[in-house]
Every structure is written in C-alpha cells, then in structure tokens.
Design a protein that fits this description.
With 206 residues, the protein is α+β, with helices and mostly antiparallel strands. It has one domain. Helices cover 25% and strands 30% of the residues. The chain has six helices and eight strands; from the N terminus they run H-H-H-E-H-E-E-E-H-E-E-E-E-H. The protein has helices at residues 10-20, 23-28, 32-35, 57-63, 106-118, 179-189, and strands spanning 42-52, 69-80, 83-93, 96-103, 126-132, 137-143, 160-163, 177-178. The chain has an eight-stranded mixed β-sheet, sandwiched between helices. The protein is globular and about 65 Å long.
Length: 206
C-alpha cells in the first residue's frame, strides 16, 4: 500500500532547493557523491525527524505511556537520475525553517530501502524518522494515523519501527517491530545496570 508521505513546510523545501542551486553550498558539503554528480538534482521524500527523549523504566512501567518525542527537523533525500546520492537536513530557527547540511553515508541507502519495504505492507502509514541518540539508532517510524500532523504525535503501540542499518548490536535492521515490542528493548538498553549487592560483613555461624 502506498505510503502517505507528509508535505514538508514550504520554507524547508525552498531552503534545500536554494542550497542545491548554490555551487558554494554543494562544493563545501562533505559529500563527494553530491559534488561529483552531473545533471539536475531533486529533493524528494520529505520526512519529519523526531528525537526520542530518554526513556524511564519506572515511568513507562508505572503508567504504560508512550515515550515523549520532539520534532528536530525535516530530511529530504536528494535524487540524481535514478538513485539517491545524499540527503539534506533542515532545522527550525527563530526565523523559520532553514537549510542545515548535506550528508551521505549508509543511512541514505538504508532509508530508501526501508521506505520501499514499507510500501509492500498491507496497511497504509505516514513515514517519519525517529532518532534514539543514546543508542546511536535511527528508525523509520511508520505512524498509523496517516492524516496526522507530521510535526506532532507520539508513537502508538501499534505503530511500526524499522531500525535502519547500521543498527545497535542485537537489533536486526529492516525488521518492522511494533512499538509495543521494540520499546521495552530500547528501554532496557538505556537503563543503567543495578550496582552489585555487597556481601554481608557478618561471618556465618559455625
């Protein structure tokens, strides 16, 4: 089923297109693939980037509430011909949405692969990106409320999270997980281990 890609804020898209049209911005980017491209470049598949606030085992266990997230930017995949060669991030400034930077690397191809995989699912979703900084983890967040405001909302239990490669050890990339399944795993990873219990000072009776 086709994904319901949310429309990006117009100023965010304009800022990326302006950067693509600027030889200086492209030349200064740390993206050899982008600098070596011949021909037109387009910005496609805008995805809101949300960051997962640090989880609390006690808070989650007590209330069963989803974690808090916050929107930090919009990401566009940059296409050259029939392939994506880089991505562009935007950020919110006091003056509105503005271009932040270009980048390339494994997350570009991983995002494209996860999006293609999600299109084969039986249910429609609104695609987003969800970052978990403490785990150095990025996931494709498939939100079930396809008409929701892409800048707001929390991961629902039935939403899907698809870890992108490279994923943390022990978490398989590109496997869709319901939030209710993956969230406890991430929570456990972010929980400090309990200190060892000191041995008793009293000697056992003979």
């Amino acid at each position: 089923m086709p994904l319901h890609v949310p429309p990006a804020p117009a100023p965010a898209l304009r800022s990326v297109l302006a950067a693509l049209g600027s030889p200086t911005a492209v030349h200064e980017a740390h993206t050899p693939a982008l600098r070596s491209v011949q021909g037109p470049l387009t910005a496609e598949l805008p995805l809101p980037v949300h960051v997962l606030d640090r989880l609390s085992v006690s808070g989650h266990a007590a209330g069963g509430r989803p974690p808090r997230t916050r929107l930090t930017g919009w990401r566009f995949l940059i296409r050259s011909g029939d392939r994506f060669v880089a991505a562009a991030d935007t950020r919110l400034t006091p003056d509105g949405w503005a271009f932040s930077h270009f980048f390339e690397g494994p997350y570009v191809a991983a995002t494209e692969r996860a999006l293609r995989q999600a299109e084969s699912l039986a249910k429609g979703y609104q695609p987003r990106l969800l970052s978990v900084p403490e785990l150095y983890m990025l996931t494709l967040w498939l939100h079930g409320a396809v008409g929701a405001d892409a800048a707001a909302g929390l991961p629902a239990a039935a939403d899907l999270l698809v870890p992108l490669a490279p994923a943390p050890p022990g978490i398989a990339p590109f496997r869709p997980h319901p939030v209710s399944e993956l969230l406890p795993v991430m929570t456990h990873r972010l929980t400090p281990a309990a200190p060892p219990v000191p041995p008793t000072l009293a000697a056992p009776a003979a």
